[in-house]
Amino acid sequence: MLSAESGNGLRCTLLVALWVEHSARRAEGEPVCYGLPVANRVAEVNCVGISAVVAAYNEGKTLADVLGALARSPFIDEIIVVSDGSTDDTVAIARSFPNVITIALRENRGKGYAMRVGVDYASHDVLFFVDGDMLNVTDEHIESLVLPVVRGETDMNIGVRHRGPIRNFFHLQMKVGPVLSGIRVMHRKVFETVPARYQERFKIEAALNFFCSYAGFRQRQTVIYNLGHVIKESKRGLFDGLTSRWDMTREVIFLHFDLYLFQTWRVDEDELPVVAEYDLFE
Asked: How crowded is the C-beta side of 78, counted as CA atoms within 13 Å?
């Protein structure tokens, strides 16, 4: 009988071996399912593909780094960039990456809507959301978020940037403030629990947290170290950045009153979102 220590070592060894084999087979163009050949084993192997969805609005300065990390990852099978009416070179940068699907909305509709468009176009069941303004995304970050979902340990894994032990404790353990993170992994069924009217602007992340739990799905948070992002004040200037931050804060506060107190989602009929015009580049 294996001891607990030797068993953990064996699992780690097997995981590394599968990861290396998965990378090699994908590089050779072979179909794989986390290290296992798919051919002749479709009925035996539950092959889970992962679609990365990047909702981006004027993220020309950082998007290339995010897409580079996703393209290098052996866990990501599809990359979709949804430009939310960007006026800079966001679309051009996305199109410069081979095998990246670029959807360019012709007008700004908000982050939640851009994510919805990406989900509608995604081919796979597991969805990896990442903001276009993230800095220093690594293979280790992607792996730590993807594996708990793929292994069946949780239905949604939310990446939370490390902000020091005290702030992490109050935010994650004491539940002080909502977990509004732009990098998270989930099954498609989790995203689909959110009514269309909550898939708007800045509502989507808080709504995902709420409806995931309400539907009985499991969620967890994973602290991500050495991950940065460009703040709104740096991207848009001090005044416009502060205005955008206030709009987001106000919207999230009102949303929590709606979700937890008024609960209008129980009685109001859900409205289908208005279809926006877009350009598709494959």
From this structure: 18
